[in-house]
């Protein structure tokens, strides 16, 4: 599930990570004297068991926590919703800086992990048996939570990307099949516009993670970073692939073929409901989000379908991911072994995973679910009975190879967002936006003490 739809004000707090004595967030005794957590939203089933505090925001978290606590006599989860996405991250960052106040286990999106890892705020779970659950995840999902042999979180859900489209719009304007390539996408967009139809998609500035994923699909590798070598980072944002993607979407926006609205807003949702957009380039969690926002429950119900994400080179397809959350153990945890047990076991049982995907709360990354007949052959109500998992999302999830994120994802996203705003306003070109973005991120990295290679 993706939640960080708008960028927060704590950019600098997370990004200042080198040269600070305070960034060594926790020795093994950091939380040893902490009182037993009592501000639990949920019921504690076994009062004498070790209690592990958890911050998490999944919509069905109450049921997930109850499932865990009912199944364990030695450890119990004390759950609090400390905010959804970025509001929670701000609170976590405050706790890191204060060296107190963090939970034992925290939910983090995979693209945010490195920014907290570099502050020594997260525990390497490898010594606590993380490899015993590695087999439950794909190569790409595991790469997103790992640094070399270290494992800093356990994956739960992901966002393999695809092309959601309105069958009524396609039918009305003679688009007989969803585009398989991005040039086909642009051609279909031009055809619909020429016939007086709606914009084909949207290039919203507030979803820089989408643009980054599409850059990676084209072959860009924005960052190279290894936590074992904290001082050095590779930044490559002025490469041809990045320029090509920004140019492609900038030209679509300039020519009125796609919209320029921020996503996740009331206006955007109204547009989706009203047929203002022919397609939605999004992730496997999108149906759950859209139905929760009221889309798919009105007159447009039954009009949606999903197809694989268009490719640049169909002979060498590349699948990418948007979003996805994990459970990590914080360095302030009093009992790291118990916390690790929770991180590895929470939302990992069959009842919780099944409830998650059936309610469209998550797209699970657990291979036990991804290979189950019930999940594979499930017919999506949102997609009018289409076997979306089997046809689109599972192949995309299995083919995803993971990504390398920087220690300052939030700052990078903010700067990419600024460039997209300029692109949409006609104030820059895709090539210039890539160069300016590269220069800004390189400069920023150096001010934070990194050596840029």
Automatic annotation (TrEMBL):
Has UniProt tagged this entry with the keyword Metal-binding?
A: no
Q: Which domain of life is it from?
A: Bacteria
Please give the Pfam families that the UniProt record associates with this protein.
SBP_bac_1
Alphabetically ordered keywords of this record: Signal
Q: Which SUPFAM superfamilies match?
A: Periplasmic binding protein-like II
Signal sequence residues:
1-26
Q: Give the InterPro entries listed for this entry.
A: Bact_solute-bd_prot1, SBP
Q: Which PANTHER family match?
A: ARABINOSE-BINDING PROTEIN-RELATED, BLR3389 PROTEIN
Q: What is this protein called?
A: Carbohydrate ABC transporter substrate-binding protein, CUT1 family
Q: Which organism is it from?
A: Micromonospora matsumotoense
Q: What is the lineage of its organism?
A: Bacteria, Bacillati, Actinomycetota, Actinomycetes, Micromonosporales
